[in-house]
């Protein structure tokens, strides 16, 4: 199903709400920098981490490089959305907006603070770096985009039948 203006408006609105929530939580975390909190004992902790690198701390202290890379990636995604706006499926649009929201939120951090504020700590369960809501949006958007592309790469049997290439029993 192709996207329409109403759907796009709703998805972008939800994206903006997610962006505002992530930025508000980050601001709150920065203001209370020395305060950690257990949300669910032994499962989830809120901790303030200054991330000057990329995922898993790769390339620490390369803020300008990451700002440029982030801007290029966001530009490519926006150009893709604009060029495909007439034929893009709803799910593709929604997943790309998630990626944009996450990238934009982390970009705001890098430009305004010089680092990304990470605050979700699940080390009690998994040995995993501290992350934030923006990271979750990026990962969900990317994973589902990969799934969409993989599913789209396989021909649909009904489409093949319509082309006369196969017969269904």
Characterize the structure shown:
This protein is mainly α and 169 residues long. The chain has one domain (5-155). It is 59% helix and 11% strand. It has 5 helices and 3 strands, in the order αββααβαα. It has a 3-stranded antiparallel β-sheet. A hairpin with a 3-residue loop joins strand 1 and strand 2 (44-51). The radius of gyration is 20 Å and the shape is globular. The two termini are 27 Å apart. The model has no long low-confidence stretch (mean pLDDT 83).
The number of helical runs is 5
Q: How do the strands of the widest beta sheet line up side by side? A: 1-2-3
Supply Rg: 20 Å
Strand content: 5-15%
The averaged pLDDT comes out at 83
Q: What is the global morphology?
A: globular
Report low-confidence residues grouped into runs of 5 or more: none
Q: Structural class of the helix and strand makeup?
A: mainly alpha
Q: What order do the SSEs take from the amino end to the carboxyl end, as H and E?
A: HEEHHEHH
